[in-house]
Design goal:
By secondary structure, the chain is mostly helical. It contains 4 helices and no strands. Helix content is 88%, strand content 0%.
Length: 147
């Protein structure tokens, strides 16, 4: 059974406004879009089959319909990217000048850490190379003694 609303809810002004909004904000735009697509389909049909429609025309129309959503999505992404760039410029202009000094300090710490990591890495690489050389030398001696 389908649940029904009490009679006093159907008469409420907000419910009546909701019913009107459903029609004007949801159903009407959907019906308008469907009507536009039907008209475009009819025009495409008429343009294609009048005067023994050719394959080239169908190919051009198909290409347009395939590229159109990609172009719309690309345009939306372009607008979104432009808005984000504009927002970043506005936000970066609001950051106080001391943030630049903090950023420089962090970069100094980063370069110091990289420098010390390099200092600790070089001896380890040298030891590993020395170990490889020693193991290769020992292996060479073993082969010479067994052979």
């Amino acid at each position: 059974m389908k649940p029904t609303l009490p009679d006093h809810v159907n008469d409420h002004p907000s419910y009546q406004r909701h019913r009107n909004q459903v029609w004007t904000q949801i159903l009407l735009p959907i019906l308008f879009a469907v009507l536009v697509f039907v008209v475009v389909i009819i025009f495409t049909y008429i343009a294609s089959f009048r005067n023994n429609g050719d394959v080239g025309r169908w190919a051009a129309i198909s290409t347009i319909w395939l590229i159109l959503p990609v172009m719309i999505a690309g345009f939306i992404l372009l607008i979104l990217l432009s808005a984000l760039i504009y927002l970043m410029v506005r936000v970066l202009n609001m950051i106080p000048p001391y943030s630049f000094q903090v950023q420089r300090f962090v970069y100094r710490i980063e370069s110091g850490v990289k420098h010390f990591a390099e200092l600790f890495r070089k001896p380890m690489l040298a030891l590993q190379e020395l170990a490889r050389f020693a193991s290769a030398y020992i292996e060479k001696l073993r082969k010479a003694n067994t052979g």
